[in-house]
Amino acid sequence: MHTVGELLRQWRHRRRLSQLDLAIAADVSPRHVSLVETGKSNPSADMVVRLADQLDVPLRDRNRLLLAAGFAPRYPERPLDDGALTAARNAVERVLRAHEPYPALAFDRRWNIVTTNRALEPFLADVDPELLRPPVNLLRLGLDPRGLAALVVNLADVRAVFRSRVRRQLAAAPDLELTALYEELLAPGPEDGPPPESDVMIPMVVRFGGRELRLFSTITTFGTPMDITLDEVAIESYYPADAETAAYFETPPDEAGKAPSVS
Q: Of the candidates 60, 70, 175, 49, which has an alpha carbon nearest to the alpha carbon of residue 8?
């Protein structure tokens, strides 16, 4: 089991900071940082949190630091349907509903889908039921041929984007389960070419309903969470990348069949 000093040093190295950099950011002396890392000084709980804050340590890992220092965890982890998170859950649902008629979903740090809006439902109609058993994993759903991969025209580009995102996520906060998922679905193979290039962004091109829909996405997170669940929830909202795609989503369902297919 690692000491709190060893864990803090690992996080400092991960963030590529010197002891002086961390000391200045946390408004403490470099000597104190050195003494904490070597175990010659026992930090208070507030000091652990202060250093973790400057190192941008996720709340889950801050609890581990506190435990290693001999203190109780400070950050609870409640399910999103817990009464204490009602306001946050309502905010997530409001964002998802407001984004309709375009698809949007919320997922956790391991890419397990928490909830979606109605605009995503038509795309799931032909997905293998096995992939839709909770917890539904967005990476597996998007990259498995039994899932949405069969609809994605530029699957190699989408895989490269997912790969880059998960690599950055693991570099920021290592996770054994996410690493296993990366190795299962995203490890580069001989068929993978160089990362896609774009002057603006990489769209996801989906062939659906006789059309090719071009979508890009944005990510929304909670700004100042004090709960682990909220710290790890992200909302991904998809937007049309061209007028034809916008017209497809904005056409009422009873008129969709009358709309001309995108060539």
A: 49
Cis status, amide bond into 30, omega within 30 of 0: no
Q: Which of 138, 238, 225, 245 is nearest to 181 (CA)?
A: 138
The DSSP annotation for 6-62 comes to HHHHHHHHHTT--HHHHHHHHTS-HHHHHHHHHTSS---HHHHHHHHHHTT--HHHH
**How many whole angstroms separate alpha carbon 33 and alpha carbon 5?**
9
- pTM, two decimals, is 0.88
Instruction: State the total domains in the chain.
Output: 2
Q: Which structural domain range is residue 204 located in?
A: 83-256
Q: Is 75 within a domain?
A: no
| N- to C-terminal Cα separation, the chain | 60
DSSP per position, 182-195: HHHHTS--TT--SP
DSSP-assigned letter for residue 144: S
Q: Beta strand pairing status for 113-116 and 104-107?
A: antiparallel
Residues 175 and 245 in one domain: yes
Of residues 253, 215, 209, 256, the one with CA closest to residue 237: 215
For residue 21, pLDDT over 80 is answered with: yes
pLDDT tens, residue by residue, 64-91: 999 999 999 999 999 999 999 999 999 9
Q: Which two tokens stand for residue 65?
A: 């630091």
| DSSP states of 152-179 | BTTHHHHHHHHHHHHHHHHHHS--HHHH
Read off the pLDDT of residues 169-221 as tens digits, 9 standing for 90 and up.
999 999 999 999 999 999 887 666 666 666 667 899 999 989 999 999 999 99
Q: 205 vs 46, 139, 153, 154, CA distance in Å?
A: 48, 16, 5, 6
Asked whether residue 263 is domain-assigned, the answer is no
